[in-house]
Design goal:
six-stranded mixed beta sheet, DNA-binding (chains A, B), alpha/beta, 12 helices, homodimer, DNA-binding
DNA sequence: ACCATGAATACAAACATTTGCGCAAATTTT
DNA sequence: AAAATTTGCGCAAATGTTTGTATTCATGGT
């Protein structure tokens, strides 16, 4: 009972017409008569015809597939984004293939290589914590595969990107703390090769500056996003002679881990040291003692926008005049 | 600089040999001379040749792609499993395309239809909370597409499945509570069309029985896994004249939400009412007050096993004598 | 009666690859 | 030295679909 062998040839034979006529009929081509079309559709349904994607792909040179490479699926920020991407993409008849870099450059490169050899129509990428050069992404460009960066984007202007308004968000978050009368504010940032880390720092810096607060170099830490390093950097902050009263964390996961680090040292999170972070993930809703505020980045919406942009580029692929686009999604500081 | 057009024809032309020779050389066919092979590989590398998957697919009728349809990516249990699947699958040169059913039957059906029309080589599925009939899955079978069920599996014996030893786990979890001297143990289960719900109930039931504890019908509740319903069912439990002292929850998410429900009513989780759950997700590591114990199901390992099984079936596809296999992964009760 | 027009359909090439078969030349066996 | 086998490679068909061009047939205008 292998139905999969039915081709347009079978339909053509059944009706005694040409293969090309069947093909055009199925595509609703205007040059095919109405009755012929009806007959074709009837037979197609009866024989349980399913078009062979390989043949279509071969002819059209299009896979109707987009690749997504993100650092982690486990992080809700990314899985929410994927949901947004999937919704948009699949509504247009495309498929999504997902790879995780696990913040390793080597895995990221492998994923992209695989995208190239499977000839995806486009790629959405959020670079790994290790990525400092963009060789693989240049390869994509060489093969003419459209690319949209997501959240973790390169500094480079000449690329398509969808990102949050992080500088503004960090400014707001820092100001929020300062307005509570807190003056000793530290930042537990991400790795500096990620532009979103620099943006956080910039917003933090601007806020302190505008409020005439002094900036201490010791209050500025970066974690490589591993739990161990986050733990260590938080300990360093606590060990300072002037322990900070608040910490602005790279994201909720960093915040949660930093808070654990606190507890181990007998420091009570959000009482002794206040935490504010980025992402505002649903899991924080389950906590009795979440960060006192978190920047909502609307991951789902960001994903949607990235997908829409990518599809737009794919559709306009022949148009070489297309210039790279940057979409910035506004954030919102949520007080818990 | 569109390199993507390089075909074996170009390589053949460059070397002045036949296309078929190039094809065989690249496949390391024994009938091709060593020097020819070397030349072919050299030119292939130089021209940056990438095989066209569409053409291969068309000839071989194989996509080197497997479809995965899971209820949610957001749930760490599933994203961990996907990581396991991805690791195994991609090591064998396959790709993974992922769809989320969001616990909706209609989305599940759509995903499977899409898998059929994109001609995936196999499917791994964890059924939605709504699934009671398996029409779509039967379709897969009709098309001869191998299928492995994962975690949320049908009762049906005649299917391939990978699942945890849930009856045993529920028995252990319930016994654990009883041994603490707790006698009034409720269960906040998942929907009854999921076999894993029934298994939990069975283990719960057996444990109470073996300990000579009585079973109260009011202590047995099912949630449809939406937060609202979980909330409601937990409230019902609390409103009972004999409030339970402990609740065995379907999974960590249900537990966390039930615990929130407690707090709203002024009931202190794990003091007034103890919680034990399934999944033992990493997020519980971030909580100050997690369920007192959780059943580790080794999602990553389960994913690996499912992928291994699926690949095995794909490889043995011609062998019609293959009988459905059931892989059971042992669980472990983790005390927090 | 003749040509132009247009509709409806047929023909065939093209897409990139695999593979059965065949044909030489080279090597081994008798 | 003839026969048999092996080695190395080319030819061409086949996979299922799309699409440019050709063909047929009828209609209508002159």
């Amino acid at each position: 009972m292998q139905k999969s062998q039915v081709t347009i040839k079978d339909i053509a034979q059944e009706l005694g017409i040409a293969i090309s006529t069947v093909s055009r009929a199925l595509q609703n081509h205007p040059r095919i008569g109405l009755k012929t079309k009806e007959q074709v559709f009837e037979v197609a349904k009866r024989l349980n015809y399913v078009p062979n994607p390989a043949a279509i792909l071969l002819r059209k040179n299009k896979t109707y597939t987009v690749g997504v490479v993100f650092p982690h699926l486990q992080e809700e920020f990314f899985s929410q984004a994927i949901t947004g991407i999937e919704d948009v993409i699949s509504a247009q008849g495309y498929n999504v293939v997902i790879s995780q870099s696990r913040d390793k450059l080597e895995r990221e490169n492998r994923a992209i290589k695989s995208f190239i050899s499977s000839r995806v129509d486009g790629v959405i990428a959020s670079i790994s914590a290790e990525t400092t050069q963009y060789y693989s992404f240049k390869e994509l460009e060489n093969y003419g595969i459209p690319l949209v960066f997501f959240d973790r984007v390169p500094k480079d202007v000449a690329v398509n990107k969808v990102r949050g308004n992080i500088v503004e968000a960090a400014f707001e978050a820092t100001s929020f703390l300062a307005k509570k009368g807190i003056t000793k504010i530290a930042i537990l940032n991400g790795p500096s090769n990620l532009e979103i880390s620099n943006e956080r720092l910039e917003g933090y810096w601007k806020a302190l500056k505008s409020l005439n607060l002094s900036i201490f170099q010791q209050y500025i830490k970066s974690t490589d996003l591993t739990n161990e390093d986050t733990f260590k950097k938080m300990e360093e902050l606590m060990a300072l002679p002037e322990q900070p009263q608040a910490v602005l964390c790279f994201n909720d996961y960093v915040a949660l881990f930093a808070m654990q680090s606190c507890r181990q040292k007998g420091v009570i999170p959000n009482t002794d040291i206040h935490f504010v972070s980025f992402a505002n993930l649903p899991i924080t809703a389950y906590l009795d003692n979440p960060p006192i505020a978190s920047v909502e980045q609307f991951a789902y919406k960001m994903g949607e926008q990235a997908a829409i942009l990518l599809l737009k580029i794919i559709d306009a692929k022949q148009d070489k005049t297309l210039i790279p686009e940057e979409i910035i999604i506004d954030t919102e500081l949520i007080i818990h």
